[in-house]
From TrEMBL:
InterPro entries: LRR_dom_sf (IPR032675). This is F-box domain-containing protein. Gene3D superfamilies: Ribonuclease Inhibitor. It comes from Somion occarium. The lineage of its organism: Eukaryota, Fungi, Dikarya, Basidiomycota, Agaricomycotina.
Length: 401
């Protein structure tokens, strides 16, 4: 069943009679909702499949300049009924300003005026927008107050993404304050600095209601007193935490949210940070498992290391763990050495993990899924005997959360 039931129903109504029942076609396309490439491939099959996939094709809009913004507004305001329905399909809006070669010039120019116009015009035109992403933005103080007023009208937005940008802490706090319905915050390749502008004290005092926090390649350049880490330590609603191997932020984030979260994902981008000189997992990483006292789902992306067993052994309540996910990549059969993963296999089959119901492998590579299944079953025979192993092909375009 597709996650977005409203879009699925719209797709069923839009279908024309085809060789398959309309409901079946809608379910197939809806199951691929998070893979744009797969949906586009389905729409090339026939008119019925195109009708089913169209709501998902239009679900994400990317704006990179003022001309595209003007065209989008004209399109959404068109009296044509066929065009008017599209605004109900748009779920994600990406505001991306091209990054110029001169970074110094870029940061001095501030936020383009068309972005301000966008924030004023689109809330009423996109009634079902749920994801708002800003990329390569520098929010200028000249537009700040008006910009915040407009953003507060995006009442349907549940996820805020800030990527590839430099952001003052006060600005981030203000964004969280004026958009109280946001439940997911994603910071990707972002640099957070001390506030140079004057922000509302209320914005700093208000605690956001984030339930999902995603942090990757984030540089915290704020002062230790009243800085970014001090602010996030006031949050008490986070249930899901995803982050990379950030040596500075991981202790603070796990120390704050570890005892409360039930879903943790570790994304390893740099294997050199994962192991020490002797190719053993660092003690610093083994002790972080101690903080995850109520975790029910563990996910390890881009790493399948034998020393992951130390994480599982250090869990305070291993019986609560219900699901483990590994996202892996290898290109040749027999590339994984079974003897290297023997201890991890025994740990996954251990009775201490009494609540474990699923061990999922997401494979990204060139091998066929049946070969990947045989390889995983060969390397993890004891875990396979528990009957919980599941192997899926991972889509590179799929969201990490």
């Amino acid at each position: 069943m597709c996650r977005n039931s409203t879009t699925g129903i719209t797709a069923v109504k839009a279908l024309q009679q085809g060789p398959f029942p309309n409901e079946i076609v809608a379910l197939v396309v809806g199951h691929l909702w998070n893979s744009p490439r797969a949906v586009r491939a389905c729409t090339l099959a026939c008119h019925a499949w195109y009708a089913a996939g169209r709501p998902y094709i239009y679900s994400r809009i990317v704006l990179s300049n003022g001309d595209k913004f003007d065209s989008l507004v004209s399109f959404l305001r068109s009296p044509n009924v066929r065009f008017n329905v599209i605004k109900h399909w748009i779920r994600e809006l990406h505001v991306r300003t091209p990054h110029p070669s001169n970074a110094g010039l870029w940061w001095s120019t501030g936020c383009p005026y068309w972005v301000l116009r966008l924030s004023a015009a689109l809330p009423s035109l996109l009634p079902r927008l749920s994801v708002l992403r800003f990329e390569h933005q520098n929010f200028d103080s000249e537009w700040l107050s008006r910009f915040m007023v407009h953003l507060s009208k995006f009442i349907s937005v549940r996820e805020l993404v800030i990527a590839n940008t430099r952001l003052e802490l006060g600005m981030l706090q203000s964004l969280a304050s004026v958009m109280p319905n946001v439940r997911t915050l994603r910071l990707v390749n972002a640099t957070i600095i001390d506030s140079q502008q004057t922000f509302s004290p209320m914005a700093i005092q208000n605690k956001p209601q984030f339930t999902i926090l995603y942090v990757e390649s984030v540089r915290d350049n704020t002062s230790s007193e009243n800085g970014f880490i001090s602010w996030i330590r006031t949050w008490d609603t986070v249930q899901t935490l995803a982050m990379d191997e950030n040596h500075r932020l991981m202790p603070a984030l796990l120390g704050t949210f570890g005892p409360f979260i039930n879903h943790f994902r570790l994304i390893v981008r740099d294997k050199a940070k994962w192991v020490d000189a002797s190719n053993k997992i660092s003690l610093w990483y083994t002790t972080t498992g101690l903080a995850l006292s109520h975790v029910r789902t563990l996910e390890f992306f881009d790493v399948l290391d034998p020393t992951l067993v130390l994480w599982l052994r250090h869990l305070p309540s291993p019986g609560l763990l219900e699901k483990i996910v590994f996202r892996i990549s290898f290109n040749r059969p027999r590339e994984l050495k079974s003897e290297a993963y023997e201890t991890l296999d025994e740990c996954l089959a251990n009775s201490n993990l009494s609540g474990l119901r699923e061990i999922r492998f997401l494979y990204e590579g060139t091998l066929a899924v049946d070969l990947v299944s045989k390889e995983i079953q060969r390397v993890f025979p004891k875990a396979h005997c528990r009957g919980f192993l599941q192997i899926f092909m991972a889509d590179p375009e799929e969201k990490l959360l």
